[in-house]
Design goal:
Layout (H helix, E strand, L loop, with lengths): L3 E6 L6 H10 L6 E6 L9 H9 L25 E4 L2 H5 L10 E4 L12 H24 L7 H11 L3
Parallel strand pairs: 1-2, 1-3, 3-4
């Protein structure tokens, strides 16, 4: 079975969306290939997001902030799901996504805005990672190959409440 492509979007593509990309790509089910992008990507990946991604087994050469324009061109990978993970990206006018992927908003607070010790910052990133992992775990348990487009869209949106 072909894996499902998931694009995680966040404004700067340096923290939450990077975690989504790494979690989906390293998920034990093997069902997903994760991607991430932002409307105004940053210049670097947040070091706490990078640390978690590497701990998950994600390769360092894939950790970079990317513009969502990379995924709106004709020869870009076709996405099955587009998930926004920050409220700003959810409210922006997105590019046209080829293939009409299912979309949802799975909002999380921005862990890069936490002030305090490195342990407190690391904890905030791990909370986002845990929330994303729960949703991806539930997504992997769905009979995706048996669901129609509207059902998949509805299920993605139900997962936002987990």
């Amino acid at each position: 079975m072909k894996p499902y492509n998931i694009l995680f979007l966040c404004t700067h593509n340096s923290a939450r969306s990077i975690l989504g990309e790494a979690l989906a790509s390293t998920h034990a089910s093997g069902l997903f290939v994760g991607y991430s992008a932002g409307s105004t990507p940053g210049t670097t990946v947040n070091p706490f997001a990078a640390e978690i991604a590497l701990d998950l087994g994600y390769t360092a050469d894939k950790l970079r902030s990317k513009s969502w324009d990379e995924f709106a061109i004709p020869d870009a990978p076709k996405m099955d799901f587009i998930i926004t993970v920050c409220d700003n990206a959810a409210g922006e006018v997105c590019p046209f996504w080829p293939g009409n992927p299912a979309t949802a908003h799975w909002g999380f607070p921005d862990p890069s805005q936490i002030s305090g010790s490195d342990d407190e910052k690391r904890h905030a990133f791990k909370e986002v990672m845990t929330g994303l992992k729960k949703r991806i775990d539930f997504l992997s348990a769905l009979p995706l190959e048996k669901l129609d487009a509207l059902s998949i869209h509805n299920e993605l949106n139900k997962l936002a409440k987990i």
